[in-house]
Structure formats: C-alpha cells, structure tokens
Amino acid sequence: MQTSTPVSTVKIDQWQRKRQQGFKSVPGAGRTITYLGKAFHVYPDTFWPFLDSQPLVRAMRIAPGQSVLDVGTGSGVIAVFAGLGGASRVLAVDINPAAIRSARRNARQHGVDSVMEVRRSDLFDEVGDERFDVITANLPFRNKPAPDVVARSQWDTGFQTNTRFFEQVGAHLKPGGRVYFAHANFGEVDLVRRLARQAGMRVRLLASSVPGEAEERQFHVFLIKPAASA
C-alpha cells in the first residue's frame, strides 16, 4: 500500500488552522458530530471525530473480554467503539481537559461508561503499571510547533509526543498485545516506522482511507507489535 502521496504543505496548514478555529468556536453547550452513523458530543477545544480515525476504528479487532487503552482519546470515539466491540475494560486518556469532558459525556451517551474510564493524562503518565491487550492511538501527525492545547491535537512540537509514545508503549502491553496506530500521508510516516523499530516493534500498514476526488489527504492505520511476538 502507498503511504507517501505528495501533499501540499500550504494547503494542509490552511486546512488545519481552519479546523483549530472550528474546535475553539464550538458553543459552550457543545455540538453534535455524526461519526460512522453515531452521534458524538464535543465541547469547545475538543478535536472533532473525523475521517482520520476511521481506518483504525474499522480495522481494529477487540476480542470479548480484552482490555484497551486509548491514548489521545479526544472526544472518545475510538474508546467508545472499543467498548461497543466487547472490551471488558477501556481506559481513555488525554491531556486536554475539554477532551476529558467530551469523552466522559460520550461514554455515558453510548452506554459504555460501565467499562470505559476516562482519565486526564499526558500519554502514559497517569496510567501506572497497568498493561493492556490492545493500545490504540491517534496522535498528532505533524512535526510542527503547537502554541496551545488545541493545536497539540494536530501538531507535535519536535515530534516529542510521538517519540515518548514509542519509548513507553511497550511497558503497557500484555504479552501478545498489539497497537493500532493512526497516521496520515501528510505526517511523518517514515519517522513513525523508525521510532517503532527502535522500540523493538514491527509495523504493518493495515488499512488506508481512499482520498475523494481532488483530495490528496489520506489516513492510515498501522498494526504494531513487539518484534518477538509479531
């Protein structure tokens, strides 16, 4: 599968800045976004459910009773679908307080709040020693300075968040565990692959979105496993 389609950086910058303004301009009571046929509520400053995570949601497989950690949960869409898919425990974490509020609302709204815990955490900082069968992540795709918490949902200053993720993720996987990792053709695909290899993991492109007419953005999900178990 192709993951390196040329993309106009100027156009991506414009599109992402427009989206950040949209996240900030949501009314205080929030708004509803339809995602894969379900309604999700977002409060101001929360990353909206979007096409970027759909390849991951469609491709991930959660066996009944498995545990899931969703890192950078945003509005909680991936975590909610994991709960609906049969997970016995879902821990959803995000550094953004607005995202925490949105994700908790959506867990209740979709009836998975009995298995889905939402916790404010900078990556794994507040996860403790717990390990999971599945870890999902939709982190910012681009190595670009982020001036605030809203920009951090799309831009990763010095790619520090992604780097820390791969340095630490192995300590939170159960034996035989796996990672579903979202990314995009306008992100840092080669760097993600290198970080995963440096962490002793193997990477396989699992699925990609199909760009629409005159649309150069494409979103991917990678299946990542420790090399010893891959």
UniProtKB/TrEMBL annotation:
Please provide the Gene Ontology terms (biological process) for this protein. methylation
Q: Out of the domains of life, which is the source?
A: Bacteria
Under the heading CDD domains, the entry gives:
AdoMet_MTases
What InterPro entries does this protein map onto?
RsmC/RlmG (IPR046977), SAM-dependent_MTases_sf (IPR029063), Small_mtfrase_dom (IPR007848)
One of the entry's Gene Ontology molecular-function terms is: S-adenosylmethionine-dependent methyltransferase activity
Q: Which UniProt keywords apply?
A: Methyltransferase, S-adenosyl-L-methionine, Transferase
Q: Which residues form the Methyltransferase small domain?
A: 53-182
State the signal peptide span: none
Q: Which Pfam families match?
A: MTS
Q: What is this protein called?
A: Methyltransferase domain-containing protein
> What does the record give as the organism's lineage?
Bacteria, Pseudomonadati, Pseudomonadota, Betaproteobacteria, Burkholderiales
